[in-house]
Each structure stands twice: as C-alpha cells, then as structure tokens.
Specification:
Elements (H helix, E strand, L loop, with lengths): L1 H24 L12 H23 L3 H7 L2 H26 L3 H23 L5 H21 L4 H20 L3 H25 L10 H8 L1 H16 L4 H7 L2 H13 L6 H42 L9 H8 L19 E2 L5 E2 L40
Helix pairs in contact: 1-10, 1-12, 2-4, 2-8, 2-10, 4-7, 4-8, 5-6, 5-7, 5-12, 5-13, 6-13, 13-14
Length: 396
C-alpha cells in the first residue's frame, strides 16, 4: 500500500514538472509560427484546441456535463465571461512573446498570486495575515519601481496578471473540470475564431495554406500545446499535495524569465532587476507564511479528520479526497478553504470530513480532467498554470 502511494506520488510529481515545464518553455514555440501574426495564431489556437479536447472527450465518452451546463444559464454566462477573459490573456501573451517582451510576460505570472490576494480583499472582503499584507505592499512597490524602469506602467504584466486572476474567480464559480472547462470555453471561441480565419483568407492574409505543410502543422499543433500540459496538470493535481503544486507553480515564470534574459537576450537594466527582486521577496514572504499555515493546519486537523473517519466511515467522501488533504496538511488552519491561499470564513469542513464549499476565488484546483472537483486549500498562494485554461491552482 505504501509502495503504491509512493509510486502515485512520483507519478504526480513528474506530471506536475512536465506541466509547468511545458508552460515555462512555451515562449520557444510561438515564434516558430511566424510569419503568422498574433491574432491569427490566437484564432488557430481556439479552433484547434476545441478539436483536440472534443476528440479526447469523445474517446472517454464524457459529455454529460455539457447537457447540464446548457440547462444552467447562469453557469453558461460565466463560461462566456471566462472565454472572453482568457482570450485577452492568450492574445496578449502570444503578442508579447513574439514582440520581444518575454521577461515582462513572465513578470505577469510572478505577480499573479499577489493580484489574486488583492482581489480576495477587494471583492470578497477577505482578511489577510500580516505577512500577506507585507507581500502585497512589497508587490505594489515593485510595480512602481518597474514603472519607473520601463518609463511606463508594465501593462503587459498587469494585463496578464489581472486577466488570469479574474479568470480564476469566474472559473471557481463555474466549477467544471479542466478539460471540460477548456472544451466549453473554446466552443464559445470557435465561431468567432473560425470567422476571423475565413475573413483573413478572403483578404489574402491567411498563412495557414500559403507557408507550406510544416507551417500548417505547427498552427494545428497549437491545440496540442494548449491541452497536453492541462492533462499532465490534472494527473498531478490528484496525486500530490496542493502545497507541492503551489511551489511548482513558480517553475513556469522562472523558465520564462530565464528564456527572456538568456535565450532571447532581453535587456535587464538595474531598475528592472530591482523591481523583480522586490517581487521575488514578496513571493518568498507569501510562500513562507503559507507553508507555516499549512503545517499548523496539519497538526490541528489531522487527528480530528482521522477520528471523524473512524467514527463515521460511511459518511466520509468515497474517494478519500478530504482525508488525503488533511493528511498532507493542505487545509487552512481553521479548517477553511481560502480564496487566495488565505483562510476563508465560508468553506467549512464537516465533522465527517466533507466540504461545504461557498463561492469564492480559489487558489486551488477547480477540477481535474477526470471531472472530480479537488478541494483547493494548500494555503500556498495560487498555483497559476500558464497556458492551461484552468483556475489558479489548477495558463499564458
């Protein structure tokens, strides 16, 4: 049994490394699609992503969620909003990479956890611990330093960070699994994207059919590039503690930053280094505070959850999800699930180990490709998955 658990843990860790590694290295892919412009690449990404995930869902015969979604106008409206926001996110990211702004794009995903926390305070009226306030304050100072360094606000970084934070909020409320959610969003994007490609073709601007078979194949592979890391992430999310995913999340922007500086040769004047240093300091404070909270949660909740499962085994969740979370110490100190890696007051663990989830921003996984919702509660600041099309523990 222990051997199986260790094997599952290794599999989950490898999948997590693969997912964040692919998202971190994706800046190498978008330039390969030139001479296609950012808007054409974005449209192809929408069209081919739908084709890929639809084929995957056909193979596993998992379509029941679609009928349920169509019968719920409010959730469908939220999916439309999510599709619009992630369109902005994807478009800005592709343009930024192909225009020589990889470093600034990476900054967007470094500051995303700070933006998510700020949204939790402003929108959900959450209360922060002193270390979290300090991290947000340092992050704000970093933006001011970078504004001076750039000679303008770092709008690429801010657009990516805020769009993905809003996306996470909306996705939490929709509560669909990763692949299902991507299918729903790209289904909404499909007709406008296809219409744009047809219009571009009619005006002689479409590169898909004019630059050779290799170019066409690369454009078609945008669906695979979008969906494959998401599948790996889903496999990781159900096998490793979310606190681990919360640390792995920084691999993607670190890789992007290194690519921008070392491979693409983007300039890093002293004021830009100072801004990044402040952001990294804020993230160290945030992560350290979250890990301390997580350890306290393990000591507080572990025995209580074990006892509740022994007293009422029939009432516990059949998959053992909550028990596993308690064992790894990934639930907030009071047994509540936080919106931004903080402790929320509305997500309460029942005596039997079940979870009553109120609608809040999640720094956790909204779902996995298997469709099973995973309780989001590492206490670690959200784990944005660049390019995934999933919620912050669960994108460019």
């Amino acid at each position: 049994m222990a051997g199986t658990s260790k094997s599952e843990g290794r599999t989950g860790l490898l999948n997590g490394l693969a997912a964040y590694g692919m998202w971190g290295l994706v800046p190498l892919f978008w330039p390969l699609l030139k001479p296609a412009g950012a808007t054409e690449i974005l449209a192809h990404r929408m069209v081919w992503s739908l084709a890929f995930v639809a084929a995957a869902l056909l193979v596993v015969r998992r379509w029941a969620w679609a009928g349920e979604l169509l019968r719920q106008p409010r959730r469908l409206g939220l999916v439309v909003i999510a599709a619009a926001v992630i369109t902005v996110n994807w478009g800005v990211y592709i343009w930024a990479v192909n225009s020589g702004h990889v470093v600034e794009a990476s900054l967007g995903y470094f500051i995303n956890p700070l933006v998510t926390i700020a949204m939790g305070v402003l929108i959900l009226k959450e209360r922060l611990r002193p270390a979290q306030w300090a991290a947000v304050g340092i992050g704000f100072s970093a933006v001011l330093v970078l504004t001076i360094g750039f000679g303008r606000p770092p709008w690429i970084s801010l657009t990516l960070a805020f769009s993905f934070a809003i996306y996470g909020l909306v996705k939490k409320k929709v509560n669909l699994g990763g692949v299902e959610s991507l299918a729903a969003e790209t289904a909404i994007q499909f007709l406008p994207a296809l219409g744009y490609l047809l219009w571009l073709s009619a005006h002689g601007g479409l590169t898909f059919a004019t630059e050779g078979v290799g170019h066409a194949a690369l454009l078609a592979s945008t669906g695979l590039v979008t969906a494959l890391p998401l599948v790996c992430f889903g496999a990781a999310a159900i096998r490793v503690p979310l606190s681990t995913l919360g640390l792995l999340q920084y691999l993607a922007p670190v890789f992007q930053f290194l690519l921008g500086v070392l491979y693409f040769g983007e300039a890093m004047p002293p004021e830009r280094w100072a801004g990044f240093a402040l952001v990294w300091l804020a993230l160290v404070l945030l992560t350290g505070d979250a890990l301390r909270t997580s350890r306290r949660a393990a000591r507080t909740l572990g025995p209580a959850l074990t006892e509740s499962r022994a007293v009422a085994p029939g009432a516990t969740d059949p998959a053992g999800t909550i028990g596993a979370i308690g064992a790894t110490g990934t639930i907030g100190a009071t047994g509540t699930i936080g919106a931004t890696g903080t402790i929320g007051a509305t997500d309460v663990i029942d005596a039997t180990g079940g979870v009553r989830e109120a609608e809040s921003v999640a720094s956790g996984v909204s779902g996995t490709p298997g469709g099973a919702a995973v309780a989001a509660a590492s206490g670690v600041p959200g784990a944005p998955a660049p390019e995934a099309g999933v919620s912050p523990l669960a994108k460019p």
